[in-house]
Design a protein that fits this description.
The structure holds two protein chains of two kinds. By secondary structure, chain A is mostly helical. Chain A is built from one helix and no strands. Chain A has one domain. Helices cover 31% and strands 0% of the residues of chain A. Chain B is mainly alpha-helical. Chain B has one domain: Up-down Bundle (Cytochrome C Oxidase, Chain A), CATH 1.20.210.10. Chain B contains 17 helices and no strands. Chain B is globular, with a radius of gyration of 23 Å. Chain B starts with 7 loop residues before the first helix and ends in a 7-residue tail after the last helix. The chains are: A mainly alpha, B mainly alpha. At the A-B interface, helix 1 of A face helix 8, helix 9, helix 10, helix 13 and helix 14 of B.
């Protein structure tokens, strides 16, 4: 299964509609940039996913139990 | 979040991401500047009307004889005009405006039809908003919360929603790109869910499933309108503006994904928490409450991702008012979501239900989170859709007046809500709680008036041609995209 690459608006092409300030916000449509694969590899490794799910469960389940207690 | 980079060959083999050194060629986009501008101005003008209805409603709390006993200006009708006006007149016009700027840019394709766009503009503003206001003020309404515009208007609204979906989904379907920006995920979510949620919420409870089942479906619509229309459309703006202004990528793709899918999975279940301790089956209420708790945790991840994307950009948020609106709107999103999860819990709900605590919550969501982010989006897009910069001085004033007014209003309503809860639980009489709330209600009216003043300032900022000293300078603290690109973090589509 191919997971689509992450993309952000930082890599948008120039907007031809322009506008006086379009070029004054230089980072607006700069060079193509994406997630830094050194810091945030994609897809995440299994340990990262397990840690996330575990944290969600440990935080969420006690809170949910309290929330439905009368 | 600590992560470890896989070996280069693993990354190449298992991911669809890095193709180093490829820059996307500039592609022609078809930003619909005229439509974007028209919706932005229409939204702000109609927002003044919706806010005026709100101020009238608020004034009647402390001066019940205000506006006399003319039926059209009674509290119930004005409230309908206020709440429906905020959703349809302001928020939806704002979403239309930014989508006409962002969707063609994100997808690289034009919207379905410019002619359809102008039809939708007039149908929306005349056939939905103005007709809806006239009908509810003249006494014709539907007894569905957040669906008070009558059935005639609902039919027109549904048609316009279908046009809205066709208009903005078409660019993505015409020639799908290999990947989608995170902002586009949220557009796809809103465009997919909204017509379904609208039909379920507007038509089914009134005509096909009255009673407790109708209340369940009505509750779903109340929260789906917020969670599956207002929230994703606002988050699309945030995910667009933050990287576009800072020139840096979103902090974490993993957090983007978990935030998005968490919202998709948990939010549709939330709505029934509006009817805790009601005749609706208790397990249905409990599922909604648990979903609300997990939704709060999801929002922590989602907002953390957005705020971490702003690391090191403190100066930029101070100099760039559009980014500042989006940033503060994002913080409001975190606060209102955690507040929502908290107040959905049974031990809290049994105290604050029917109090002004809930009204503070709804204002933090609509006038805080969604409104601030939409304003940020409009200001960001304005130089490109209007062909000239906005008046920065008025925009900065609008920010500070709106922020102080909103924080005052929400804080005031939250405190008086807890006071009302305490009095009711202690067995105090209803009228005693009304008398005790009087000063807080006056503060609410004054702060609401200042909020309307901020909207006027914003309208002036857009319409008034600025002098040379009234435009924003190039962001002093802007982080250019070069360092990121230089590291080779570039992906081909």
């Amino acid at each position: 299964m191919t997971i689509p690459p992450p993309r952000t608006t930082a890599e948008l092409p120039p907007d031809p509609s322009g506008g006086p300030s379009a070029d004054r916000q230089a980072p607006q449509h700069g060079a193509a940039t994406f997630y830094d694969p050194d810091r945030h590899p994609w897809p995440p490794n299994a340990a990262q996913v397990r840690l996330f799910v575990l944290a969600l469960a440990l935080l969420g389940l006690p809170l949910a139990w309290w929330a439905v207690s009368r | 979040m600590t992560v470890h980079a896989p070996p280069p060959e693993t990354a190449t083999a298992t991911t669809a991401t890095p193709v180093v050194g490829t820059h996307l060629p500039p592609e022609p986009t078809s930003v619909e500047s005229d439509l974007a501008r028209a919706h932005a101005i229409a939204g702000l003008v109609l927002l003044l009307g919706a806010a005026a209805f709100g101020i009238m409603v608020a004034t009647k709390f402390t001066a019940p004889q205000f506006l006399g006993d003319r039926a059209a200006l009674t509290w119930g009708r004005l409230r309908f005009a206020h709440t429906q006006g905020i959703l349809y007149a302001w928020l939806m016009n704002g979403f239309f405006a930014f989508a006409y700027y962002a969707v063609p840019t994100l997808s690289g394709r034009p919207v379905l039809s410019r002619a359809l766009g102008w039809w939708l503009f007039w149908i929306w503003n005349v056939g939905v908003v103005l007709l809806g206001w006239v009908m509810v003020l003249s006494g014709t309404s539907q007894s569905v919360e957040w669906g008070e515009f009558p059935i005639v208007v609902d039919v027109i609204t549904l048609g316009a929603f279908l046009g809205f979906v066709a208009q903005f989904l078409a660019p993505y379907l015409r020639r799908p790109r290999a990947g989608l920006y995170v902002a586009s995920w949220y557009y796809a979510l809103a465009l997919t869910f909204t017509p379904v949620a609208f039909v379920i919420g507007q038509f089914v409870p009134e005509y096909f499933a009255p009673g407790a089942i109708g209340a369940i479906l009505s509750g779903l619509w109340i929260h789906d309108a917020v969670g599956l229309l207002v929230t994703p459309m606002s988050l699309a703006i945030a995910y667009y503006v933050i990287p576009a202004v800072t020139g840096r990528p979103i902090f974490s793709h993993f957090m983007s994904l978990t935030g998005f899918w968490g919202l998709v999975f948990f939010y549709p279940l939330n709505g029934i928490h509006h009817y805790v301790f009601s005749p609706i089956p208790m397990h249905t209420q409990q599922i909604a409450i648990m979903a609300s708790i997990f939704m709060g945790l999801t929002v922590i991840v989602l907002v953390a991702n957005l705020l971490l994307s702003l690391r090191g950009c403190a100066r930029l948020t101070m100099s760039n008012v559009a980014l500042r609106f989006v940033w503060v709107g994002t913080v409001f999103y975190l606060l209102v979501s955690l507040q929502g999860s908290f107040q959905a819990a049974m031990p809290v709900q049994e105290q604050i239900h029917f109090t002004d605590f809930v009204i503070g919550h709804s204002h933090l969501a609509m006038a805080g989170f969604a409104t601030f982010i939409i304003i940020g989006g409009i200001l960001h897009a304005w130089p490109r859709i209007a062909g000239r910069p906005f008046h920065a001085r008025y925009a900065h004033w609008a920010f500070w007046v709106a922020t102080i007014a909103l924080v005052t209003m929400v804080g005031d309503l939250t405190i008086v809500g807890m006071q009302q809860a305490g009095m009711w639980i202690s067995g105090a009489s209803w009228i005693d709680s009304v008398v005790a709330s009087r000063s807080a209600w006056m503060i609410r009216t004054v702060s609401g008036t200042f909020l309307a003043v901020a909207f006027v300032l914003l309208l002036v900022a857009l319409l008034r041609r600025p002098g040379a000293e009234d435009t924003e300078e190039a962001p002093a603290g802007a982080v250019t995209s070069e360092p990121v690109a230089a590291r080779g973090a570039v992906v081909s589509a």
